[in-house]
Structures are given as C-alpha cells and as structure tokens.
Design goal:
mainly alpha, about 75% helix, 15 helices, globular, Farnesyl Diphosphate Synthase
Length: about 300
C-alpha cells in the first residue's frame, strides 16, 4: 500500500472514531434547534457539525509533544485535501463522509471558504494559547464560530449578504459567551482565551486566570467582556431586522437567543464562572423558542431545487 492510500485509510478510521464520539456529545441546545428543521436540513446540519467536531478533535485530542503536533497537522492537511476533492468537479472524495458532505455542499451551495476557515481556526490552537488583544481573538472566533454560522444559514435558506453579516456577528456573540462561560474549564487545560490587553486593563495577568482568581478585578473585566458579547448580539439583530423574510433564520435565532439568555445567567451569578456553569432549564428554552417564533414567524419553503428536495 502506498503512502497516499495509507493516509486515506487512516483518515477514514479517524473519522469513524470521531463521528461516534460527536453523536453522543452534541449539545442539547443544538438538538433543540434541530426540531425546527426538516429532515434534509437536519441531515445537512448534522454533517456540517460533524465536520467541525472532527477537525476540532484532531487538534484538541492529539497526543502530547512534537509527535502529537505532527499528527494533528497531518490530520488537518488530509481534511484540506479532502475538501479540495469535494469542490473539484473532476475528483471524487476519498472517504464515505466526504461523499456525504459533498452531497450537502452541492444541495445547499455551501461556500468552501467556510470550511477552510474552520480548519485554519482549529490550526491556531496548535500554537496559540493566549490572544494579545480583541482583534486577535476576533479572528479566531470568526474562523471557528462565524464561519460555522455562514454554513448554517446556507442550510437554513438565506445566503444573502445581510444574512451573512448577521451570521458573522451572531457567531462572535456566541463564541464570546462560550469563552466567558468556560473560563474555569479552559484554565484547567492551561488555556486563557480572554485577551491579554483586556486583563491588563483591569490589573489582571494570565496567571490570575489560570489560578481562578475571583475578585473585584475579575468582576470588572468580565463585565467588560460581557459588554463586548452584548454588542455583537445587538449588531446581529440589527442586521436581522433588515431582512424582509426572517423565517428561514428561525433555528439561528433559537441558538442566538438561547446563548443570550446564558449570558444573562452568567451576569446574574456575578460572573462566578469558576464554580457555576450557566445553563438553561427546559422551560427557559421553550420560552426562547416562543420568542424566536414570534420574531421570525414560521419557516417557509425554499425556492427552486431546494424546494423540491426539502419538500
């Protein structure tokens, strides 16, 4: 067996292992949004989500040391090559999942840059454990969150420029909320995603976060960062208000407003993210869904070949 065939075999085996783990690890919030999708959309979104988890796990679950890094780099490179085959009309994907993903990409006309940027964002975790300032963090969050949003809205049925701006801002808002909620968990893994410049502005250091120091300085810093997330939610909703038919974006709104409520929970617990993990009760999620329905109305059928496929 030549080296190329060997790599493809390893890619397929790795995918099967990750896909099983992804299926059991999907968040309840994500599954709740699934309820408002039809079967074809749900399948497409599941494939995109699996892709994201696979490439993320290639980096996060690599063995320690130089060998682990080399393994992760090779895994990401294999997925870049597989994307090249997926988007090449004269080539065939090398893996079963690649062929399934290709079906979704063709059906919903998903842009390749979204997948490429997700891989680039995961690759950043190979070298970067802290971010100097908000601009540097925004690039990372754009890649690992906003670009996921761009792919999702393509499946939901709106790829307009306004909808893509909405997805970019909403992705940033969700990722900032995640970062704030997971400060303690990330610290346990030796990671600090909060911008160093923000910490310094409030008299904090990276060591303070790694030591889970919860004091007045941390409260002020967390409030500052929460305001940054709040601003992105508001920018997203400003874009949404400019969209004439908002119904296809209902699943995105459910996710967005769920995480906005999580941000409110974090605020209500005075940013004590070291001993309390913010979460919503089922009745709160139902309330969020009701608000989202009221703001977007019911989903509508999509035009053209999508209408035929989704009907």
């Amino acid at each position: 067996m030549d080296a190329g065939a060997s790599r493809l075999g390893q890619l397929g085996a790795t995918l099967s292992q990750f896909a099983r783990r992804v299926t059991t690890r999907s968040s309840s919030n994500f599954k709740f949004a699934f309820l408002f999708l039809n079967t074809t959309q749900r399948e497409g979104l599941t494939r995109v989500y699996h892709f994201c988890r696979v490439v993320d796990d290639i980096v996060d679950e690599r063995p320690p040391g130089p060998e682990g890094r080399a393994e992760a780099e090779a895994g990401l490179a294999q997925w870049s090559e597989e994307l090249g085959r997926i988007y090449d009309p004269n080539a065939l994907p090398a893996t079963e999942f690649g062929r399934e993903l290709a079906e979704t990409i063709e059906l919903f006309s998903l842009p390749r840059y979204g997948f490429d940027e997700i891989i680039a964002g995961c690759a950043m975790d190979l070298d970067i454990t802290t971010y100097a300032d908000q601009k540097a963090l925004e690039l990372y969050c754009y890649r690992v969150a906003s670009c996921v949003g761009v792919l999702c809205i393509g499946i939901f049925g709106d790829q307009s420029e306004t909808a893509q701006r909405y997805a970019r801002h909403l992705g940033l808002a969700l990722q900032y909320t995640n970062i704030l909620r997971d400060v303690g968990e990330d610290a346990a893994r030796g990671r600090v995603y909060l911008p160093i410049a923000l910490l310094e502005r409030h008299g904090l250091t990276e060591r303070d976060i790694l030591d889970c120091r919860y004091d007045a300085r941390f409260l002020a810093m967390a409030e500052d960062f929460a305001d940054t997330a709040e601003a992105e939610y508001q920018r997203a909703w400003a874009e949404l208000s400019a969209i004439h038919d908002r119904r296809p974006l209902l699943p995105a709104e459910i996710m967005g407003r769920t995480y906005y409520q999580l941000l409110g929970e974090i605020r209500a617990h005075r940013y004590n993210v070291f001993t309390h993990r913010a979460a919503l009760r089922r009745r709160d999620k139902l309330k969020v869904a009701g608000v989202s329905l009221a703001l977007t109305a019911l989903p509508v059928s999509l035009p053209g070949r999508l209408r035929a496929a989704l009907g």
